[in-house]
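Subject: NAD(P)-binding protein structure
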Amino acid sequence: MSIQTTAIVARSPGPNGPKWALEEVEAVSSLGAGEVLVEMVATGVCHTDLVLSGVPEGMMGIHYPKVMGHEGAGYIRAISPITKSVSIGDPVLLSFQSCGACTQCRRQHPAHCAHFNQLNCTGKEGRFLSQATTAAAGQSAKEGIWGSFFGQSSYAKFSVVHESCLVNVKDVLRNPSDLATFAPMGCSFQTGVGAVRNVAAAGEDDVLLVMGLGGVGMASVMAGKVNNCKTIIALDKQEARLQVARSLGATHTINTVPAEADSVFDFEQAVRAICPDGPSIVIDTTGVPKLVEAGLETACARGKLIMIGATPFGYTLDIKGLEHIFSGKSVIGCVEGDCVPKEAITEMIKWYYEGRFPIDKLTTYIPLKEYQKALAGLAAGEIIKAVLLWEEESPADNSLSKSSETKCAEHSGDLSASRI
Ligand SMILES: [Zn+2]
Ligand SMILES: [Zn+2]
């Protein structure tokens, strides 16, 4: 069975990078064990979508065409007989998928699941069908499109999602319109928050340096304030972002583009002018090798460098053995802030309603049809966090959600009979 739906389809990248196009496709809607059907209200655009849309066909197990998207927010429209955590009509936020059975999953570290890449980056073949046809074995057939990206492929209005991705927010959501605002919590925001609270275990004696002020970096700044870090330094190349970081709790800012056109930025001097001993926690969200290396070098004794931003393929961080031993420093890789999504998202929503997590300052809402604006704005650094809206109306208008909830509730086990 399948459902007609709109989706952003990524095709094999060209010399200018990712190739995305808005298409009418069919979502294969037969629900396997542990799967549900979600109608998206909003989807955050994360840099990982851009990075993994630019990977050549076949590398890292990635194939095209595919539907990406891994910061979904929407409503449950159908469930399988064994679904436990949600009911039809529940509002949900979508996060990454994990197996639930490997050592790290059992130890409550699902972001380091042994099967993370396969479940999240590769996805599954044929979860959507294109209107285009392919000739196979002398017969034409509808072109298969890969889906289940991060277990969700939330760049489709309707998508079959794995239950392990779901965070049911029906008991904590105060206004339906807030669901779109919370969409990026499933990846960007929990990554930045978790880096500070779970990975670095930051406290009031810490000097926190956050490099790169996208959605992840800004969330780290806010988490640093929640954890009462005595100094929070935000570093970026755009003054506008540094201003936002100051409004979120950064005590100091560093612009890597010198005011004088003919001068050269001196990382060490800029950081030590604020904290002579160096920061105790350095969070890198840029993946720029020079910044990663300078961050490690400048960190204080026993300081932690937390690597989040994707470094270039094949890049090796050079660590001098003896110096590293005496420094007592740590270099820590970080995926999704080492979060358990249900716990992290529930906490972030609580902070939001307390006024301690003002994510509205970061977010630009963009109607789906103008998704190219999100890509261009992110690439140019003009947008900190883009959230695509699946309806023309503002997210405050929840009338559609209510009407389709009613219809689908009657057909929970029979998707073909529902409107969708
Ligand atoms: Zn696992
Ligand atoms: Zn992401």
